[in-house]
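=== RUN LOG ===
request id: a7f3
mode: sequence -> structure
chains: 1
length: 208
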Amino acid sequence: MTDRPPPEDLTARARIRDAAIGLFTERGVEKTSILDIAQAAGVSGGLIRHHFGSKDGLRKACDAHVFDELMRFKEEMLEKGHANPGFIPTFDARQLLFRRYMGRGMIDGSDAAAEQFREIVDGTEQYFREHGLDLPDPRAAAAALAGMTGGLMILQDHIARALGEEPGTHEAMLRMMAAAGHIFTSPLATPEVLEKARAALAQYPRKE
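=== RESULT ===
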C-alpha cells in the first residue's frame, strides 16, 4: 500500500504548479486568482483546491519546488565548476523562470525567498570567515553582497533592457553575471579610498 497519488493526479498537480509559477512570476500572487491558474492549467478550480487546499497552499508548494530546483542547479554547477574551472553554466528557460520567480517572491514576501536569502547570507559569511578575509563585519558584508546579487534577480528585466539584451534570456543572464563577477573581484576604488570610506562610516554612532 502507498499514499502516492496515481500518475494522472501527479500530472495534473505538476501542471497546476507550473501554471501557477508562471502566473505568480508575471503578475504576482495577489493579482493572480485561482480561476486564472485553473484556466492556464486547463483544470477546474475544485481540482486546485483538492491538490493544494488554497491559493496560499499552492504558493507554498510552488515556493518549495522552485527553491529545491534552484538549489539542485546550484549544486550541479558547483560540482561541474570544480571539475572544470573553465565551465560556463547554461541558463535554460526553466532556470531563468525560476530566478524570476524568486526575484518576484522577494518583493511579494515569499517565505521560500526569505529562506533562500538567509541561507545565502549564512553561506557567504561562512566563506568569508573560513578564508580569513579581513572584514570588520563579516555578517553585514555577507548580507550586503546577497542583497546586491538578489537585486540582479529582482531587476533583471530592467538590467537586460539597459544592456540592449532581450529580458529572460541566457545571454542577458550570462552578461549580468559576468559583469557582477568582475565588480566583486575587481574593486572600483583604491585601498586608500576604501579605507577613508570605512573610517567615515565608522564615525556615525549606532542608535541604542
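=== NOTES ===
The chain has ten helices and no strands.
Confidence is low (pLDDT under 50) at residues 1-8.
=== END ===
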